[in-house]
Amino acid sequence: MNFGDLVGNAGLWWIVIALGLAGAELASPGVFLIFLAAGALLTGATVLAIPGLPILLQLVSFTLWSTVAVAIGRRWYHQFPVPTADALLNDRAGRLVGEMVTVVTPIEDGKGRVRVGDSDWPATGADAPVGTRMRIAAVRSGILMVEPLPPLG
User: Fold this and answer.
1) What contacts 4, CB < 8 A, 6 or more positions away?
2) What is the pLDDT of residues 8-61, one digit of tens each?
3) pLDDT confidence band for 78 (50 / 70 / 90)
4) Backbone angles phi, psi at 100, to 5 degrees
């Protein structure tokens, strides 16, 4: 096989694309490009097995194989979740529970706003004037459930 055969062989190009996608997944892990790489690799194998396959059918093959790979991957990760030392890694609201906040809009009739870091969040809890320090007890639908701090001493 010479260089001319390599340039004109779509199956090998799909395999090169698969290797590129797999390399991109390794360089920037996101657990998604690898499924597209699998689709490209299987498309390459299909094109090598069926020479002269029109580009439209190659793209359909890539779409189908990628969809199958994503479906298998989703099922796999659902059945065998990746363990982590930080259960709240991707749960921003869950990470807020226990944090101290300051009331910025008075909590009246159980509703107001509190400051968390550099942003204000809607809050529910015991009535409290502006400036009161409270603790986040829970988060539901983007609303912080706050409670008064226990007395010192």
Assistant:
1) none
2) 689 999 999 999 999 999 998 776 899 999 999 999 999 999 988 999 999 999
3) confident
4) -90, 140
Helix and strand numbers (H, E) in the chain are 5, 5
User: How far is residue 133's CA from residue 151's CA, in Å, rounded to a whole number?
Assistant: 12
Task: Give kind and range of the element (H or E) at residue 101.
Answer: strand 100-108
Q: How far is CA 125 from CA 18, 107, 112, 138, 142, in A?
A: 54, 7, 8, 11, 14
Overall size of the chain counted in residues: 153
Distance CA 64, CA 4 (A): 29
- Model pLDDT, residue 137: 93
Q: What is the pTM of this model?
A: 0.54
Distance of CA 55 to the CA centre of its chain: 32
